[in-house]
């Protein structure tokens, strides 16, 4: 994959580039949006840009990819690439845009590092970039072909349910009356809305009903903002303005946090926190529909039972499974009379985990890091622990 000469150069310069990658990505986005302001208006998440989380995610992915190539020059980190490619395919990123990114990213590198960017250094990091970019283009092309091409499609809202004070579920059918595309439990769709200032912002929401459901549904948490965090533009628009009869523009389903081809007796653990419950509930519904017989540990953490979105579905699906154990952890108002309720943060210390368990996690990063560490401590193989991050993937950016 990475040439021997470039590997030596990248290894030698990785500390310098890694130390400056935050400033590099900041300048990159400033250059990109100055040249192409429509990308910030209609493609990139303006909230993530304002908060700086997209810069952190980009910096983390570049550093992680380069480090992996140096340590494994004949391989590539396909799991990380696959996750990024699913996001890009859902957003509609094009192969031509990688040329644009290359132009402004390398200009930013030169601006920050100056004379340290010798022709040899530039060539080595250019090789790293195109190894990553070309791999993503190839994966995204395959995903597009599997979905029949990238097409935004109009969907009509046929139902709206206020799950909690902060979460609303929107039930959807194709506005043109044609069959809905298939999807796998755990996947998400991109939703594009036109905001009052004319921007067409895109956000991704997990499909929160099982594939066998007669309608598609997304469950959206309203992001109020506060402190340094900006208010969620799209979530607030959906909550305030979208009602039954309105239409939304959706992408085809994407995402690699799916159950896969598991045997009917495979032990599973489905763990979520907060709005991370949405793909997990869809997975549970799929397990019920397919008659899963193996043990299923259902774990969820939330602030209180009242704030636990889709709780009725969460409980109902678990009850229908042949062998399910439910553990709901609440920071406040846990009902001592409910056998499944526990007080405090998610803690698996006294929860038995079957040998050979495959685990699927979705929720805030601190929650997923803690649960992953506990599962590894109980003997679950790291390769059998999958996760989904809502928004920019900061797992690598915050490592260590």
Automatic annotation (TrEMBL):
Residues 1-141 form the Globin domain. Gene3D superfamilies: Globins, Nucleotide-binding domain of ferredoxin-NADP reductase (FNR) module, Translation factors. It comes from the Bacteria. It catalyses: 2 nitric oxide + NADH + 2 O2 = 2 nitrate + NAD(+) + H(+); 2 nitric oxide + NADPH + 2 O2 = 2 nitrate + NADP(+) + H(+). Its cofactor is heme b. Residues 150-260 form the FAD-binding FR-type domain. Coiled coil: none annotated. Pfam families: FAD_binding_6, Globin, NAD_binding_1. Signal peptide: none annotated. Keywords: 2Fe-2S, Heme, Iron, Iron-sulfur, Metal-binding, NAD, NADP, Oxygen transport, Transport. The keyword Endoplasmic reticulum does not apply. InterPro entries: Cbr1-like_FAD-bd_dom, FAD-bd_FR_type, FNR_nucleotide-bd, Globin, Globin-like_sf, Globin/Proto, OxRdtase_FAD/NAD-bd, Riboflavin_synthase-like_b-brl. Its EC number is 1.14.12.17. It is an enzyme of class 1 (oxidoreductase). One of its GO terms (molecular function) is oxygen carrier activity. In the C-terminal section; belongs to the flavoprotein pyridine nucleotide cytochrome reductase family. This is nitric oxide dioxygenase.
